[in-house]
Amino acid sequence: MNLKENIQAKAQALLPTWIAFRRHLHQNPELSFQEFKTSEWIQSILASHQIPFESGWVKTGITATIEGKNPKSRFISLRGDMDALPILEKNNVDYKSNVDGVMHACGHDVHTTCVLGAAIVLNELKNEWEGTVQIIFQPGEEILPGGANEMIKEGIFNSFHPEKIIGQHVYPELPAGKIGMKSGWYMASTDEIYIDVKGKGGHGAKPNQCIDPIVASAQLILALQQVVSRHAEPNTPSVLTIGKIVANGATNIIPDLAHLEGTFRTFDETWRYQAHEWIRKTCQGIAEATGTTIEVDIKIGYPALFNNPEVTQQAWNLAKEYLGEENVVELTLRTTAEDFAYFAQKYPSCFYRLGTSSADGSQFNAPVHNNCFDIDEKAMITGVGLMAYLGARG
């Protein structure tokens, strides 16, 4: 058999192993930057397969290295993230999370399994491909400052300079066996917005004696929608959402303070910071109009994710070669965010989607970050195999 057929055969034959890996991780989730037991477990698997690795990146991160023939001929990195979310799982399955209020609801258990499986497959077939593959087990994707950025700061690329970096993410909108890609801009930047609207509290029956932060907040929320609708260029997709309001008054109490939280996302870095100024100006204008004091704090989050066109085209061609043309689909822009964007800023990269629903779409179709998220585990045949093939051929 040739390399493709050997990888396909191993990815298929070892499915029970991938399922066992994924279920162990799913049952034992850990929150961002707290993946200590996850890290220890991954290290034990790597050691059992005699795969060299370095641990302790951002405390829990790991980099493993597999050398094929002529190891200096090419260098490529494959990345999988490890952290879970603060969500109480509602699935009724044998491998349900054992940790109350913590769940792998974004599929990072799958991502870790796929790059770990790819490492095992590549190691077993290292005499059949050329170059060196670095496997990145990344902590803390779900919260700022993002594990990718922190690993870069700690120097994971000081001695290993990849020609490209490949990442994948579960995608319940596609059935298992298919993957999706998009060249160029793919995922949005993400910034967190925190606003305090300060007024003067008092009796709800005497609003004339108060400065109502709730009314001011209502005006502010509506006014902020104009930041996108009236200032963004028509061809610049953007999202400004206020998702949280806390104002501890009562039926007869106007509070002193209303606290708002939200997010701003876009694909244009210049417009991104212009929008921040419009948000601040809007807050200032509403404060002057309502007599309140408004303080705004914008925390800079992940940058927009750019898939290098050349690297993505190469990955697209290899995916069609490995999976068949009918199993590779083109995706559209997403306003969700990913800290893989930091890797993509540093090296040419491709971040693609792994189909995880059932063949007819009737099962395993809950969205990510949902308490019923789960996958068709046959998707890991594709997830492991394609990652290994891209590592060996990409």
Can you walk me through this structure?
The chain is elongated, with a radius of gyration of 24 Å. The protein is built from ten helices and 16 strands. It has two domains: 277 residues, Aminopeptidase (3-Layer(aba) Sandwich), CATH 3.40.630; 109 residues, Alpha-Beta Plaits, CATH 3.30.70. The protein starts with a helix and ends with a helix. The mean pLDDT is 97. It is of the alpha/beta class and 394 residues long. It has an eight-stranded mixed sheet. Strands 10-12-8-13 form a four-stranded antiparallel sheet, covered by helices on one side. Strands 7-14 form a two-stranded antiparallel ribbon.
Quickly describe the structure.
The chain is an alpha/beta fold and 394 residues long. The chain is built from 10 helices and 16 strands. It is elongated.
DSSP strand content? 15-25%
- Class from helix and strand fractions: alpha/beta
- Give me the number of helical elements: 10
Shape summary: elongated
Low-confidence stretches: none
Tell me the radius of gyration. 24 Å
CATH topology of the largest domain: Aminopeptidase
Provide the CATH architecture of the largest domain.
3-Layer(aba) Sandwich
* End-to-end distance: 20 Å
Order of helices and strands: HHHEEEHEHEEEEEHEEEHEEHEHEH
Number of folding domains? 2
Q: Using DSSP, what is the number of strands?
A: 16
Give the proportion of residues in helices.
25-40%
Report the average pLDDT across residues.
Answer: 97
Name the strands of the widest sheet in spatial order.
Answer: 1-2-4-3-5-16-6-15
By CATH, the superfamily of the largest domain comes out as Zn peptidases
CATH class of the largest domain: Alpha Beta
What's the main sheet like?
8 strands, mixed
